[in-house]
Amino acid sequence: MTAVHRSDALNGVRVVVTRPSEQAGELRALLEEAGGTVIEFPTIAIADPPSWAAADDAIARLADGRYDWIVFTSVNGVDRFLVRLKRLGREGLPPGAQVAAVGPVTAEALAEHVRVDFIPSRFTAKALGRELPGAPARALLPRAAATPDELADVLRSRGWTVDEIAVYETIVGGVEPPSAPTVRSGEFDVVTFASASSVRGFVRLIGSPASIGISTMDADGPKVACIGPVTGAAARGLDVRVDVIASVQTARGLVDAVIEHCVSRA
Q1: Taking all residues of the chain, what is their mean pLDDT, rounded to a whole number?
Q2: Are 201 and 172 spatial neighbours (Cβ–Cβ below 8 Å)?
């Protein structure tokens, strides 16, 4: 067994989890399994989109067989899209269109409803856009409202026709969590980010990264761990120093990267 999987690897390490409370369970369990002390500090919340009109129109087109692929980039996208289908009186995804997922966690959310036809070699939107197989076709992308989508840009550059529909909205930095005084005073060792929006919410709630020693100019202070390069880039863009980027974009991959970093510095 490698050091990355030692049950005591994070003993005494206080780790801030910034995911929404209802989605933090897996990450929290993995961190605690490794001996870490988890501080939940949700910096985003998930809500319905401002309007369902575009999504409802696209669902009607999907039922008519007008899409070759439906592509999911998050569990939120899967859950919200399937709930909307049900509310419109449609049970599950219609046959015909192939289904792609950005990674195994998203694929698992789909598994009980439909077969997943494609997962990219790296679990990022860019890889999914580059590797989605076949000649240019028409794809439907259920996603968050008002969020830049690298996947759509990559597909369009390959000649694909892409319809993006908002099936949820990410509320950034809304309600201050009860753990705010602890986090704001810097009483933690590692903060984890699983999305660019979670970084934005963190900075909105906490204020200047320098105030807790995690700015790009701070050599010491708590460590910052990001689930992937897109989240890492967002953090740096907000003057947040990035110490760890997971090589596998899953909760397990993020925890393994945190453990490896902590063990290497022990």
Answers
A1: 92
A2: yes
pLDDT at 140 over 60: yes
Q: What's the CATH fold of domain 3-43+174-265?
A: Rossmann fold (3.40.50)
* Token pair of 70 as six digits: 């439906």
Q: Which two tokens stand for residue 78?
A: 């899967």
pLDDT band with cut points at 50, 70 and 90 for residue 44: very high
Listing DSSP states for the chain in one string gives --GGG-TTTTTT-EEEE-S-GGG-HHHHHHHHHTTPEEEE---EEEE--S--HHHHHHHHHHHTT--SEEEE--HHHHHHHHHHHHHTT--SPPSSSEEEESSHHHHHHHHTTS---B--SSSSHHHHHHH--SSS-EEEEEEETT---HHHHHHHHTT-EEEEEEEEEEEES-SPPTTHHHHHTT--SEEEESSHHHHHHHHHHH--GGGGT-BTT-SSSSEEEESSHHHHHHHHHTTB---EE-SS-SHHHHHHHHHHHHHHH-
The tokens for 237 are: 């863009």
pTM for the full model? 0.83
Q: Assess contact for 238 and 209: CB atoms under 8 A.
A: yes
Q: Does CATH number 3.40.50.10090 belong to domain 53-169?
A: yes
